[in-house]
Design brief:
Blueprint (H helix, E strand, L loop, with lengths): L1 H24 L7 E4 L6 E6 L2 E6 L5 E3 L4 E3 L14 E5 L6 E6 L2 E6 L4 E4 L4 E4 H4 L15 E3 L6 E5 L5 E5 L4 E4 L4 E4 L7
Antiparallel strand pairs: 1-2, 2-3, 4-5, 6-7, 7-8, 9-10, 11-12, 12-13, 14-15
């Protein structure tokens, strides 16, 4: 037990020193400020009097490095690019955005109007072909949040606590009615 406690204390001191070095490397050894966390978008480093403290944002918020604060609308982009080659990766929750990776460096890209990114082909194709649904969950709205799949009225989404849509499907012979937020009897989708 004592060895384990000693190990935890030593590990804490080492990680505190690494965080403190992060503050001084950013010019915050004598000035207070905030830095983005290296691996987690929902955390940041608070540098106070040369000491570094790891802080978590509230649920549904990410640290915005431009504003230097937790922001519910900030979309954090983590570099998932392979270190070599050229690859196009989809952006989670978006039908039109994608990341172009060239030699490990990421370049944010977006398809033109009326086109959507097809991750299977790595190209922008007519949006109607993919029937892709944008994430419509709003961090500023009061839960629960529902929205219908505009391509299939038997499918609908409920936003989870991280404002990510979870897809559900109505039973056969029913369709989702957005005015009451539930499945109702109806054989066909109403005409748009």
């Amino acid at each position: 037990m004592i060895q384990r406690l000693s190990f935890i204390i030593i590990l804490s001191i080492i990680s505190r020193a690494a965080l403190a070095n992060e503050c001084s490397d950013a010019g915050l050894a004598t000035v207070d400020g905030f830095l983005p966390h290296k691996t987690e978008c929902s955390k940041y480093i608070s540098c106070y009097k040369g000491q570094a403290y790891e802080v978590s944002c509230p649920a549904g918020f990410n640290f915005n490095p431009d504003l230097k604060k937790c922001d519910p609308k900030y979309v954090c982009v983590v570099n998932n690019c392979p270190s070599t080659g050229i690859v196009k990766l989809p952006v989670n929750g978006s039908c039109t955005q994608y990341t172009l990776c060239i030699g490990g460096v990421q370049y944010p890209k977006e398809c033109q109007i009326d086109l959507a990114f097809d991750s299977a082909t790595g190209n922008c194709v007519p949006a109607a072909e993919l029937q892709c649904m944008q994430n419509q969950c709003d961090p500023a709205a009061v839960p629960p949040q529902f929205y219908i799949n505009s391509f299939d009225c038997m499918k609908y989404y409920i936003c989870d606590e991280k404002y990510e849509p979870i897809e559900f499907q109505c039973a056969n012979g029913t369709i989702f009615d957005a005015t009451v937020n539930k499945c109702i009897l109806g054989a066909a989708c109403p005409a748009a």
